[in-house]
Structures are given as C-alpha cells and as structure tokens.
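User: I've been trying to design a sequence by hand for this structure and keep getting stuck. Would you show me what you'd pick, starting by listing the structure so we're on the same page?

Assistant: Good idea, let's start from the same input. This is the structure you sent:
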C-alpha cells in the first residue's frame, strides 16, 4: 500500500523544501495544499481518515507547515478536533522548519553539556525557529531571553510561549547591534535565528565577551547572522567559545526531518511537535 503524505501549508504556495524532504523521508506520494487554514482543513482531514481501514491508516499521514506559527498551530488544533476513536492519522508539525531546525541546533548545543542554570539569549527570536529554540533551551534548564526590534512583538511571542508551553521567557527589545551586544552580556549561550541577510551581532561583540561559552547561528544565507561564525562550524573553538554554524547543525536538521517523516508511517496516532521532535534529535546527535 502506498505511503501517502498530505502537506498542509498555511502559505499560498506549499514549500518545495518540505515536499522534497517528505519524499526523501519515505513518502510514496505527497499531496501539497497551500492556503490551508483552520476553517478549510476539515474536509481534507476527513478525506485522510475515512478512506482506509484501521490496519492501513498508518500509511496515511499529515505534515503541517507554513511561515506563520500561530496559523499553523490553529490548523493543528483543527486537525486534531477531527480525530476520534480509531479515525486518526499521524501528524508532524514543523512550520517554517521551526521544530526540526531548533531541535537540531539545541541538540548540538546540549550535546555532552549541562545547560541548566546557563543564561541563553536567542537573537531575532520572535520567529518560528527562535520561539521553538527558546522553549527547548528552557527545557534544558537555561534561563532564556529572546530579542526583537519591537517590544510588543517580542512580548507577544513570550506570552504565546507561556500559554502553549508554560515557560517563562524574558522579552528584550534590541533593534540595533549595540543593544543586542548589551543583551548578551552575562549570557553563556547565544543563538541567532533572525531573518536572512541581517547581521545581528558583530564579531567583536561575542569574541570579547567574558561569559559566552556557546555561539550558534541559524542563518544559512550570507551575510552571517553572527559575524565570524562559519556556516560549516560544528563545535569549532575560537576566542574561548564553541561555535556552530547553520550547515554545521543543518545535516542533523535534514536527517531529523527525514527520520520524522519515516516515523509517521509506523503508526496512525503519532503527533510530532516540539518535544517529540527534540527527543528524536537528541537520540541522533553526534
């Protein structure tokens, strides 16, 4: 029986990246739908849960993506509301690569280390990847802050994390490199997750920090999100810090994404969200 993956994307055009990795993860066919929202997803879910018998439902799965985390979470909730009894299929939630990218980055940061009690700052942390990374760092015991250009946007992200995950994250307004440099003072961990094409921190700001131990940059497009971090850095040592670049943990991100897709077809009642995907990442790191 064919393994069918239904890609529900909140953006108008379904992500090609997610489509390719879906096939690489073992799907035989992917139905990609754009413009999916909480109101129109219901009939799509019904088509997925009512068409195969109980023992065959594991061969149908759903992937939820798109650039808007809040809309994606609303779609996930709407999908779950349609499930009942044995009429359900496995679901993976990874809006804008939020869970897989954040999980890969934090899994490497935590690999062989205890992050409990450390102060971590996620630069440009209001986006999907930054928010999920903040959650995972907090789960590792770090005291986490996220920065953004506008206080109301940063605070809204922190409030959303408290509602969804029950964690406290500090909101820091830091629209300039000078203010971001001030935000990382006293921190042991800094992770940049801002938009491509923007340098959030100058090299001297992290190189001269007496407290920083781990520095990571999730930006895969030049210029670097943190100046002086190489895209291929994976545990490189420089100025007394350990560095990770986007491609340094990107190999784990891709392998993790593929592994999660494969797991969707092992049973019909699996939900892969932040915590579940991170657990898989920690089992794969290194």
């Amino acid at each position: 029986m064919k393994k069918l993956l239904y890609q529900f994307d909140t953006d108008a055009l379904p992500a090609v990246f997610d489509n390719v990795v879906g096939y690489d993860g073992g799907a035989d066919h992917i139905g990609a739908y754009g413009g999916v929202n909480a109101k129109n997803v219901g009939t799509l879910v019904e088509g997925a849960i009512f068409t195969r018998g109980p023992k065959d439902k594991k061969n149908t799965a759903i992937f939820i993506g798109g650039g808007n985390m809040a809309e994606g979470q609303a779609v996930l909730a709407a999908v779950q509301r349609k499930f009942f009894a044995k009429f359900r299929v496995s679901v993976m939630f990874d809006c804008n690569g939020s869970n897989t990218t954040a999980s890969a980055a934090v899994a490497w940061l935590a690999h062989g280390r205890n992050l409990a009690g450390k102060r971590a700052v996620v630069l440009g942390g209001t986006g999907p990847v930054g928010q999920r990374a903040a959650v995972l760092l907090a789960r590792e015991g770090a005291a986490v802050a996220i920065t953004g250009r506008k206080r109301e946007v940063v605070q809204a992200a922190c409030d959303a994390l408290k509602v969804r995950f029950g964690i406290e994250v500090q909101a820091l307004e830091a629209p300039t490199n000078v203010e971001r440099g001030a935000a990382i003072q006293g921190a042991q961990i800094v992770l940049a997750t801002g938009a491509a094409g923007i340098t959030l921190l100058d090299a001297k700001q992290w190189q001269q920090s007496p407290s920083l131990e781990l520095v990571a940059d999730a930006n895969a497009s030049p210029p670097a999100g943190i100046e002086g971090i190489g895209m291929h850095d994976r545990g490189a040592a420089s100025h007394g810090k350990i560095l990770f670049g986007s491609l340094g943990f990107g190999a784990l991100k891709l392998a993790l994404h593929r592994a999660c897709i494969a797991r969707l077809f092992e049973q019909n009642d699996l939900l892969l969200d932040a915590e579940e995907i991170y657990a898989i990442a920690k089992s794969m790191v290194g």
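That's my pick for every position. To get oriented when you compare it with your attempt: The two ends are 34 Å apart (CA to CA). The longest strand covers residues 4-9.
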